[in-house]
Amino acid sequence: MAHIAARRFRYLGPVAAGLVLATPAAAQPDRPATAPAAQSETAAARTVLARLGVDTRRIDLALVPGATPQFRARTAAGRLRIEGTSPVALVRGAARTLGQQGSLFVSWEGVRNRPLALRDGYDSGVVASPFSLRTYLNTCTYGYTTPWWNWGRWEREIDWMAAHGVDTPLAMEGQEHVWRALWREQGMTDAQIAQGLSAAPFLPWQRMGNIAGYRAPLSANWIEKKRVLQRQILARMRSLGMKPILPAFSGYVPEAFAKAHPEAKIYQMRQWEGFPGTYWLDPSDPLFAKLAARFLQLYTATYGPGEYYLADAFNEMVPPIAEDGSDARAAAYGDAIANTAATRAAALPKEVRDARLAAYGERLYRSITAAAPNATWVMQGWLFGADKAFWTPDAISAFLSKVPDERMLILDIGNDRYPGIWNATKAFYGKGWAYGYVHNYGGSNPVYGDLNFYRSDITAALANPGHGRMRGFGLFPEGLHSNGIAYAYAYDLAWGEIDAAGKARPLDAWIGDYTRARYGKTSPALVAAWEKAIAGAYTTRYWTPRWWHEQAGAYLFFKFPSLDGAEYPAAPGDPAQLRAGIEALLAQAPQHGGELLYTYDVVDLVRHYASVRLDDRLKTAVAAYKAGDLATGDRATAAAERLAKDIDALAGNQQETLGSWLADAAAYGDTPAEKAAFVEQAKAVVTVWGGTGHLSDYASRAWQGLYAGYYWPRWQRFLAAQRAAAAAHQPFDAKATAAAIRDWQAAWLKDGKMWARQRPAAPLALARTLLAESDAR
């Protein structure tokens, strides 16, 4: 792990005075998973503030009792005093107070701070959260974002969590060390285990039972580094009073284990996105309880005990309910495979289906509490929206029926895409649950979100008398580092923006605080500019074009080229309002041009606007060549190429690039072969993904390197082939063209090119040029 910790940490934004830079992370000892007793909770909070660049000598922190998460901030005699019910409340209180005076802003793109300028007599009053828990992260985040993170990057993320009031995050790193130990005990060799574990960016879907052994083997060095890293992560989270959500056994077993236990009740599940079916051990089989308990025993011995344990047994997978409804063990391994997950509930009498679902739920819960008696079973509620044909309200009720209400926490993550499930299920029939949104899918990063929707939706949920045991609120992005304003606002609504009467402050008042914190000062003109930008881009709660004609990709430009492109729909949002907002923001450059986060925001909005206009050029080119209009097609193709290359140049200013992603992947390797493998895996997850389903371009990224080096070469080949066919008055061979592009993609994955970042020297000037170019005809 010293190799990882000591390497240069890639900072999330450009270097300049006033922005806190991530320093090289010192090598960390392999210390116990619990924080040293000598480190008090207030000291842990103070240390977070110090890392954020705050002069803590003038700040007093005090923990106070209280059942409701809250803080109070007051100033007197040149000092700031924060009282809070937890270390997270203390950090949250300090960050909010200092942000309101323009001294501190904590974001993924960078931490902006200035010297304290405290005014005596300030009193925030008691600021409370209407939620007892603020949850965060998604199982998929650990594939789309964190597979190459070191301790320095995780430390920054935990500080971000504390500043935004998060106290119940998913903590999924390091579990392959425990899985390996478990399967070793079951007689599997290290070679069998490694071959059955997917490559690092694809592990979330291995953990949820969707895939197994994809791009195997998993590096033993990677497993060890993540073991050390998880101990550091949990130590820091626990020192801040956070209650991390830890992994548990949900029933999926390696194929080699299934073959070695033909007497066990093991089902081969349905194929997911074209991957071979995985193997699930029925909770009624005696082996299930044994393996579940042993996993948690090994986990606790490695990382310490927990309170919340995540087990997602049926993520986009149908429960394997036997046709006869019996609970008898399969007579032979072959019979178990024959009884696949494709058997639907409709084929069973309702009482049989419900009984089996109730038994599954109860046994999953008891398998956790057998090893951790005081634990709460956590599951993501995504499956209830993703497969509504199976998960009817009656089926959900049956599955949850035998789990104690107070010992379960359902993360209702999809209210931006699958709203209303909690209403349809009477707030999950009395179970504890947390309300929230995925927002980001796959790490794909068009500019979108819906601030007014969050405001009205969260306040409505709180006011609804039927919300039952709604304990928490959370954001559950599959990828991070985009649309930070949406995350800042949503977590502010979860702590500080909604008063005791359930009303949220007007959005323009919040924008004033946000811009003052982010840029150091604000003005009516700046707020008005952001209001226009929000009206243009941040009125979209789900980016619908990311799935279109069974193709993934945030923009048409990011999708695999096809003739369908000529009919691609207009992007969500209001481009005229967005452009007006960008122009108004650019007019603020004399006042804010020296602020790097201001530049970052302008660049991102222009990059997005130009990408939407680039799609228009592609649509024109495809339609023109299809109609035999070579002149129009040539003009549109040339314009598309210029935009693609200029957007690529501008995107070098931003937090992540293809080059930074690949450099982080390579740094995790200890040998040239490992480095090359990690780079290829990192390329694959953000491009072709895998399987024979629709995952290609699911994790498309608006990154420098991909615009000019991946997406444009694909379209260039497609448009050139289309033009050649039109010029020769021959039918366009779409099948041959697609095959040629796929061959090029396969070669691109293995070419070893690292795509080093190229920063624009004058990003605001380039943004202005690109804005004009986007609208040129």
From TrEMBL:
Residues 510-771 form the Alpha-N-acetylglucosaminidase C-terminal domain. Residues 134-496 form the Alpha-N-acetylglucosaminidase tim-barrel domain. Residues 1-27 form the signal peptide. It comes from the Bacteria. The keyword Hydrolase does not apply. InterPro entries: NAGLU (IPR007781), NAGLU_C (IPR024732), NAGLU_tim-barrel (IPR024733). Keywords: Signal. PANTHER family: ALPHA-N-ACETYLGLUCOSAMINIDASE (PTHR12872). This is Alpha-N-acetylglucosaminidase. It comes from Sphingomonas pokkalii.
